[in-house]
Amino acid sequence: MKGLIASMPITELKAGSRKLMMENSPKLFFVSIIIIIITSVMSELQYRLPGTDRAYAPLLEQLTAGEVLSLNLLYSNLKPTGLALAALLTILRPVVEAGYLGYCMKISRGQAGDYYDIFEGFMYFGKIILIYLLTVILITLWSILLLFPGLVAYYRYRQAYYILLDDPEKSVLQCIRESKQMMAGKKLDLFLLDLSFLGWYVLDFIITIVFLSLLPLPFSLPLVAIYLTPYTGLTRAKFYDQLLNSMAI
User: Fold this and answer.
1) Going by C-beta distance under 8 Å and a sequence separation of 6 or more, which residues neighbour residue 107?
2) pLDDT for residue 190
3) What is the pTM of this model?
């Protein structure tokens, strides 16, 4: 069985995604803007949790001293209400993001996606949370050994959400096992695909810094993200479908 990149180069995957973006605009971009706003608000809330004013101070001291940042130190300084909100946001984020993955899957397959599709993750709330928790635990355990095994584990379980959205009847463990099987020999392919978007992320970071330096606003306009979010979403959905096709051969 040929490698994925050999059967469909990264450039071809991305070109197909750009074509879909043009065919499904402006609706695709409106849906992406909604998901960007939701996740941005969630991120902003995490920086405004009760007790963050004194919780982040120790982290800055660690960073200044060149020490490894400790999230335990952050959470130990949060107030109880802050901890509760932090836990809620942590649980909700993968559910929201899974909904957008499902929307991108539909578009990549030529189906008619709709706005309410981004909330589809709430239909499988329990399973998505369990996949999130189990994969975080597995990645963390492998990361204890070294960074590289943790990175490998991260890519090993990347398809679990797609598998669940494709067949909600499957169990959490089945989704994780199938993702492991599906990514055997393909982890480098997905890593290279992610790496191909690095320039876009750098551009997004630079524009954000420049925007905030010129305009004293408490937020920045996600100008690049409006294009990059559907671009990466569709490309990774097409990658998943290529994996399915390659396994069927």
Assistant:
1) 20, 24, 28, 113, 234, 237
2) 95
3) 0.83
